[in-house]
Amino acid sequence: MDNDFSEKYIAFLLHNLPAAKPAAGRSEVVCKCKYCADSRDPRHGHMYISIPNTESDPSFHYCQKCHTGGIVDSRKLIEWGIYDPEIASVLGTINKAAAAMGKTIGYDRVVYDFMNYAYDRESAQLKAKYINDRLGLNLTIDEMLQEKVVFNLSEALYTNRINTYTRHANIIKQISDNFVGFLSFDNNFVNFRKCTNNPVYQSIDKRYINYNIHDKKDNTEKFYVMPGMHDLSVPTRIPVHVAEGPFDILSIKYNLRKKANGIYAAISGSAYKGLLIHLINTLKMYYIEVHVYPDNDEHGDDYVMNDIKTFLKPYMIPMYVHRNIYPGQKDFGVSPDKIKEVII
Ligand SMILES: [Zn+2]
What we know:
By secondary structure, the chain is α+β, with helices and mostly antiparallel strands. Helices cover 31% and strands 18% of the residues. The longest helix has 16 residues, at 85-100. Zinc ion binds next to loops.
């Protein structure tokens, strides 16, 4: 490795990333996160980027605020809007050497194959009823399978011949019996919601839990996107509807927008900007209009919305904020009689 690379890389990051500062004795650079709104203090960021020391030392990135992490490579530089051919080429050589030594296991940014099927129709029917009742819908099991609903974790792992579990077998059994899930864009993360009143182990005794199917370490594509077709020959902006969780976006797609053409997605515990950066900088979709349906809490407050607006501005992409102002409701994950939608 070029001996000067570490210093060159630090200088490059400091020059190109907002609020960037060296940290941990110049073994890291900390800056404003590219995937979330980060903190309100304009001088203080939470995204840490490690500086390679040897020629097989990858540069990792991790945000302490939204927990988005991965390895820096040419695609990440493009995604962050700071591509530099020389830096990208050295990082590529380092990553190759690191991969040969097994240092990058789990960091490959792959989209996995996934076969979605429900064998136990009776239990799937109960979970489908839970979703339909909550949202005032009447979707069939097969329609939900199309929307990447995972009815039973054990069955899903079996169907896809995944024999290595990332949690204890007893936990997997309880998740299978008591939770219904939604599969991420990269077919690796399942965002599960508890749908029974049965007691479960403390570590999963929450409303939402995540299951990491392949023990993937790069989580920049863990958002949930409903599969769909988009006609690019029509000269109108493609509407992108983004909500906090899968229940919100299901209700928005079926109850509010009546399945109108568009992209429907939920950030599922990541951040809005991470999803938009993926659409704009990775998929190069500029001719879109963004509709955000935030929760009425700190994840969807004006600071976060303004951060997205600022991010979209140079692309001249219009953005609309939709809120559910029905008394006592904080989001859109409910039936239409409990939604009073205002657009800001
Ligand atoms: Zn972040």
